[in-house]
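Most newcomers find our protein records easier to grasp once they have seen one. Sequence and backbone structure share a record, each on its own labelled line. To make this concrete, we reproduce a full record directly below:
***
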Amino acid sequence: MRFYLTTHKRHWVRLTDVPLFLKSEHFANAVKLDPARGPYAVDSGGFTELQRHGRWTRSPRQYVDDLRRIWECVGPYDWAAPQDWMCEDLIIHGGTAGPLTFAGTHLSVPEHIRRTVANFLELRSLAPDLRIAPVLQGRTVADYERCAELYERAGVDLTREPTVGLGSVCRLQSTREGAAIVTAMAARGLRLHGFGFKILGLERVGHLLASADSAAWSYHARKRPPLPGHTHKNCANCLEYALRWRTRVQAALPAWQQPLLTAA
């Protein structure tokens, strides 16, 4: 299993060979891009796009152009997420969660699933040479099954894909429902990536995932004083803290799961 540290600090790609997970927008807005020392994957930034606008503001063509520039300047990435449509209640219906305001798409879960599959097909048509991974979306096991079937009807053999993202599960990962979704999709023989997985989720279903990412280290650091000798207010943007957190996550997992968090 490949475990990616999620960060908005794009320059970290030149500082560490630990796998990183970064939003495409952080690369797209940069004048200069640094070559990567280690493996990395690219998030489309869909949660932020749909949270703020209730729709995608970048066209598939613009997104492909961004991905191609990243590939050419930073180096080949493991895979990139498509412009998928998350199915959480706040994304669909809108509202507030803490300091965040959600515009809401005001569409149905089946429509989000349909648009997710349609976008992947369009992106792959525009750029068959780029490593864009299909993503499964839904809210229930039946939703994810329907999403997988839509891919199959479109001629996409998910079992042959190097990575299949599992969206909208980060808030369910440690629950019985979340475990059922992961288990059902893994039973299809898919190499799953779990978006936003924390320790509880990894403990429960980490053995069913091919890869996962997490930004939990940043939230963790925000609630604690900085590391000794660090002059910033907290270590929420600190590579040293992130790497130490990753080591602690590995040590906290059961012994049989610790090899899952290797760099490779």
The chain has ten helices and nine strands. The longest strand covers residues 2-6. Residues 2-261 form a domain with the TIM Barrel fold (CATH 3.20.20). The radius of gyration is 18 Å.
